[in-house]
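Notes, p. 3: input format for complexes.
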Amino acid sequence: MEESPFPYQGPLEPSQVIGRDLLVDDLIRRVTGRKVTALLGPRRYGKTSLLRRVAADLAEVSTVWVDLYEVTSMADVAVRFDDALAVTKGPLAALARRFSLEASLNLGALKVALSGPARARPDPAVSFHRLLEVLVRMAESSPTLLVIDEFSSVARVEGAAGAMRTAFQHHYRTLGLVFAGSQPSMMRTLFSERPQPFYGQADLVYIGPLDAAAIDDIVRQGFDNTGRKAGRLAGLIYDLTGGHPQRAMQLADACWHHTPPGGSGHDNWADGLSQVRHDSADTMERLYSQYNPSERRVLRALALSGSIYGAEAELLDLAKSTAQNARRVLLDSGELTEAGGKLRIVDPILADWIRNRFPL
Ligand SMILES: Nc1ncnc2c1ncn2[C@@H]1O[C@H](COP(=O)(O)OP(=O)(O)O)[C@@H](O)[C@H]1O
Ligand SMILES: [Mg+2]
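Output follows (360 residues plus magnesium ion):
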C-alpha cells in the first residue's frame, strides 16, 4: 500500500519539518551561543520534531536526548538519563563509556540494577548525580547538545530539578541546553512566574500553530509528490484547525486516503473530515466527560462563540467568576491557549466535536 505523505503520530523525521525555518534558525543561534533555552508550546505542536531538526542541523555537535515523559520518581529520572547516555552516537559514545566507567557506572544497566535485590540496589539520587557529572565531562571534551524533552514532568520528582541545576549552573557555557515541555503551568512555574535560580535565566521560546502558508506548502507538496492535486484543500484545513500541526496533518492524511491517484484532495474534504470526526468521537466523548461542569461550560461557550462572556455564556448559565476559574485551570493544563488576547481551545477537533454535539 502507498504510504501517506502526512504522518501524524509521533515526531517527524528532521527532513519532514516544514514551516519552522525561523524557529529552527533561532534555536540554532541560541544553542550555538550557549543560551539555556526553554521551548514552550501545547502538546502536538511539533516541539520534539523541531528539536530533532535542530539537532540534525547542528552537524558539529552531538546530541544527548533525554525524554522525561511522565517520570514520577528519582529512579525514573536516573534511568532516562542512563538510557540516553547509553544510546549516544558519534564522538560522544566513547566518552560516555569512558567517563561512566571512571564513575563506577555500568552504562545502560541502571534499570536492571534498580530492580535487583534491595541490598545491591544503587541509590537513584547518587546514580543520577554521577550521570550528570559524566554528561558535563563529555561536554567539556566534545561539543554537546543536551535536549531534555517533556521536562515539565520533573516538577513532580522531589530533588530532580535541583540536582540538574547544581550540575549545570556552572557549566551552562560548556554545553548547549534546551528544555521542552507542554504543561504550561509547570513550565511557567519553573521558568518564569516564580523563577527558580538557574532556570529563571533561560530564554523562553514559544512554538505556535503553523501559518496558512506553511499548511499550504505541506498539503500541496504531499499531494503533488504522490501524483494527486490538493486544490483548495489547504485553506479548508487551515480554517478548521487554525494551523494546529498534528490535526492539520491528520486531516490531510484522511483526505489523501480518500483521494485516488490523479484525483483532487479538495473534492474529498467532506469524506476526510467525516473520517476524522468518526475516528476521534469516542476519545472526544471520554475527554469531555472528564471536565467538571464549569469547565464544560467554558469549553462550550468558547467552541460556539470564541468568548466566555458573551450571549452564549449567558445561555449556558456561566457566571463570570466561575468562568474565570475554569479558564485559569484549562489554560494551566494546556487545554486552552491565549494569543493576541484571544482565547482558543487548543485542539480544533475537540472544538469541532463540541459544536456538533451541542449546537446551541
Ligand atoms: N513542522 C511540521 N510540519 C508538519 N507537521 C508537523 C510539524 N510539526 C509537527 N507536526 C505534526 O504534529 C505531530 C506531533 O509532532 P511532535 O513533534 O511529536 O509534537 P510535540 O512534541 O509538540 O508533542 C507530528 O506527527 C506531525 O503530524
Ligand atoms: Mg514531544
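The pocket of adenosine-5'-diphosphate (ligand 1) is lined by residues 7-12, 17-20, 43-49, 218, 245-246, 249 (CB under 6 Å).
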